[in-house]
């Protein structure tokens, strides 16, 4: 199937791409979108049907005349694997061209998960799930990996990702390791970029021009897409927004500057600040040091109005809101998606962030906020699989 897709002509690719993005579409509407003559379109669609890339998918609603056949991408014969490698977990999904999740698996990582152990686990699970679905490797277009930057995307290397529990995650040739282990083409990008792609094409951002995606977890990860183009940062890092300065005399950040959003609003920063405060507290009943993976303890304390925890979490949310107001003034997006464990697990963090934004956003941008987006925790993996499909069916794929 990879070879068949690689040999498609531009008209075939254009037609397949439209059908894929629309989900289901009639031949009449497809003709309007492509501008092809009916004779040409019929020839193109016949070719795509013969190659088992598209099929009749349903019947359109009647508008008074005869109901028209709707076409969609094939449900079998071509599949994609999406992998979300975060700092604490890995999620794997297998989808067909209709973006239906056929299988998914998730496992958590501790300090024993070196890159080698992680890749072994990923590839073993992929082999297992393909076997369960009776899918051969020849039917798999590729493996898309959304992971933590900074990256050398073309060479498939994770350069120096921070905050992995295992310290050997540096200059990891993740693309080569996966391809060597399982003999399926692999493509990588940072996870925030794959997530924003998923939301733009099929999620909350569908039919919008410009959206921003912010993931609030161990670190603050962000991505921006405008007119279908991902706005890329240096080394494809995902923390450019995280290192926007909101207080020039503030907390020292891991990047060396003072007062970055990251130094207040991430799980890592809040845990460090909480542990420092409790350590310096003269109260003999101070809580024991909280580890990064136990961050929910701090959120739980804040929900019970613990003074230190509430102050630290509120300050993190407030500074995130200030940063968002700055970002919106610069980019003027239509939609901002906030997601990640801090958004999912702590309503007050989300509410205070949004309230702070509106309090200082005097320009009255018509921006809409979404809590979690359309794909919630699946966005990175779904976007990673879409990244693979896009490499095959976009006319500018080279």
Structure characteristics:
single chain; 398 residues; alpha/beta; Arc Repressor Mutant, subunit A; Nucleotidyltransferase, domain 5; five-stranded mixed sheet; 14 helices
Descriptive notes:
- 41% of the residues lie in helices and 20% in strands.
- With 398 residues, it is α/β, with parallel strands linked by helices.
- It folds into three domains: 2-73, Orthogonal Bundle (Arc Repressor Mutant, subunit A); 79-197 and 378-393, Nucleotidyltransferase, domain 5 (2-Layer Sandwich), CATH 3.30.420.40; 206-373, Nucleotidyltransferase, domain 5.
- The strands form four sheets. Strands 6-5-4-7-10 form a five-stranded mixed sheet, with helices on both faces. A five-stranded mixed sheet has the order 13-12-11-14-15. A three-stranded antiparallel sheet has the order 1-3-2.
- Pfam families: HTH_24, ROK.
- InterPro entries: ROK (IPR000600).
- This is ROK family transcriptional regulator.
- Belongs to the ROK (NagC/XylR) family.
Number of helices: 14
Distance between the termini: 18 Å
CATH class of the largest domain: Alpha Beta
Structural class: alpha/beta
Going across the biggest sheet, name each strand in turn.
6-5-4-7-10
Shape descriptor: globular
Q: Would you tell me the overall average pLDDT?
A: 90
The helix/strand order is: HHEHHEEEEEHEEEHEHEEEHHHHEHHEH
How many domains, as an integer? 3
Q: How many E strands?
A: 15
C-alpha Rg (nearest Å): 23 Å
CATH topology of the largest domain: Nucleotidyltransferase, domain 5
CATH architecture descriptor name of the largest domain:
2-Layer Sandwich
Provide the β-strand percentage band: 15-25%
The biggest beta sheet reads: 5 strands, mixed
